[in-house]
DNA sequence: CTTTTTAGTTACTCATATTAACTATTAACT
DNA sequence: AGTTAATAGTTAATATGAGTAACTAAAAAG
């Protein structure tokens, strides 16, 4: 069973391009979207949480967060541990989330068009499995 | 069926990291590997062909090709259309291809471990289909 | 209370991409 | 044939996004 990486990677750039086109009107890129998405899902979160979830180093998340703060899509919640920066979506952030989420879902539907339901479900199951296998031995940046 | 992009993208960084680790002993990165791979598969090719296959702009491919030429893994074939730069693998290029191909196949096997044969086959079928859907309307860098 | 750990930031560098403008060459059209 | 348009590739400038190392501030552990 050869060539799975090739098939996988052949999707990446077109996908990112489409997503960035979709997000551009909101002043977002996919990497910023990831942060919004995470916060919306998990509730108020810290940089370390986001960082370790996405397997990305802290400085990268710092930068994403700063950009989202500038755009007033997220804001800091003061808490008692003063090391920690807990962030949440602003009202605007929530609105932007909703709009983008909807458009992304539409795009997802478009991309899965022509696939049987079971095929789609299998994809949903297999992709995380691949990720898991990928992280198991070689140690490719999950635990930050 | 939401969240397919998220599942897909969660694989990208760990995968690239693994591939780059694997290729590093050969002075390659995955982006250079893509070019070698394409040429090996398709035979002598032009920059535009590679560029449009991967959905990457021409200048990016120019750079990749230059780097591979420096490393003497590919070389130019003179042809009659003097605008076109047709490249092929050198002897060293072929040797490096073989070694890397083998290692990558092993990694692919490792990553697919625990999947039924039919599941693997389905992946091989569905990923290209996704790519096709992705390129169809929005125009995400196929026709360069 | 000193030491260690944790969260986040800053500074620097790397990998890779994009756009725009350009050259050279071939193809198309009158 | 001779002009115009299209094509292949390159160069230059810039953007995105990541990683590492070194740092500050604050809390936890001892």
UniProtKB/TrEMBL annotation, chains A, B:
It comes from the Bacteria. Residues 1-132 form the HTH marR-type domain. InterPro entries: HTH_MarR-typ, WH-like_DNA-bd_sf, WH_DNA-bd_sf. Signal peptide: none annotated. Gene3D superfamilies: Winged helix-like DNA-binding domain superfamily/Winged helix DNA-binding domain. Keywords: DNA-binding, Transcription, Transcription regulation. One of its GO terms (molecular function) is DNA binding. This is DNA-binding transcriptional regulator, MarR family.
